[in-house]
Amino acid sequence: MLQIGDEVVYFSAVFLLVVLGTRSATGASLLTAFLYVFMVMFRFPPVPGDQAGRVLRPRAPSGGVPVVAHRGGSHDAPENTLAAIREASRNGATGVELDLSFTADGVPVLMHDETVDRTTNGSGPVSKLQLVKLKRLDAAACHRLKDKFSGEKVPTLQEAVEECIRHQLTIFFNVKDQPDKAAAVLHEMYKKFPVLYNSSIVSSFEPKVIYKMRQTDPNVVTALIHRPWRLSRFGDGTSRSLSTSGQLWMGVLDVLLDWAHHHILWKLCGVSAIFMQKDFISLDYVQYWAERGVEVVGWTVNTAVEKHYYQNLLKIGYITDSLLEDCDPHY
Ligand SMILES: *[C@@H]1O[C@H](CO)[C@@H](O)[C@H](O)[C@H]1NC(C)=O
Ligand SMILES: *[C@@H]1O[C@H](CO)[C@@H](O)[C@H](O)[C@H]1NC(C)=O
């Protein structure tokens, strides 16, 4: 949806800033015109609204808002496993969020961290392990319910996709980096399982990942993940950097990044949704995006009180670690 109002404001602001900075009306006009042409030439139009709607507003069994199990539901089962996908389905999730990673031999698998240490009985980076070695690890080894889920393996991307399709779950692919590799692999997956165009979304904190995905396959539904102050602060609000100047600089970058997400990047990438950290979501915020044809999804919503708020007031989907009980937040 073209937001004429937005565009007039942004380009006027750019023009004014450049005029003030350079005292050259010609320079400012040229730069503004250049920016405008750049946006028009290089942005991807979003996928049609009805396609995005099938992904982002699937029929929830109880007529409720979409509920997506974070990493497959990391509180209820070992994260990013087939058992988690089955558990999420059994417990009434409409979808699962899954993390893409690559083994040393280039096989796409599900793993959130760079290393296997936190979730399995192995150690070292996933990217240094061959698939056969990775498959020998116990993916439930460190989970609170490890006895119930013992013997669970790290699944390949395709195994996970097939399991989700079997259970008619929406998939929220979370891609951290490696835009080229990820886009190629996901495109192949969409080709192999075309139902994914109607039942999955590719998301990332990195705009370049989403841009590459849309370049590779403009029919894929996409989302940007965002948390304000992500560069300077951890999710719980504590500072990342020890030096004051480093902290200040990251804070400035955070402000710019937040502005870019809300005014440029979403449009350039043509995303259908913004996955926003829950503490920054209000009714006004949801409305802001609704006016632009973009859905908001909150993460991670882990208490009954919050879920009630999403269900009854915000009326938007959310990502949660548990379908069953309250648990600690994840950032
Ligand atoms: C991890 O657990 C699996 C399953 O119990 C076992 O076969 C494997 O040898 C273990 N690997 C390591 C590195 O301990
Ligand atoms: C997606 O759903 C629409 C509406 O049901 C259908 O016409 C279309 O063929 C589906 N696309 C794929 C790739 O399954």
From TrEMBL:
Keywords: Membrane, Transmembrane, Transmembrane helix. GO terms for molecular function: glycerophosphodiester phosphodiesterase activity. Signal peptide: none annotated. GO terms for cellular component: plasma membrane. SUPFAM superfamilies: PLC-like phosphodiesterases. GO terms for biological process: ethanolamine metabolic process; N-acylethanolamine metabolic process; phospholipid metabolic process. The chain crosses the membrane at residues 12-38. Residues 65-331 form the GP-PDE domain. Gene3D superfamilies: Phosphatidylinositol (PI) phosphodiesterase. InterPro entries: GP_PDE_dom, PLC-like_Pdiesterase_TIM-brl. It holds the Pfam family GDPD. Belongs to the glycerophosphoryl diester phosphodiesterase family. This is GP-PDE domain-containing protein. The lineage of its organism: Eukaryota, Metazoa, Chordata, Craniata, Vertebrata.
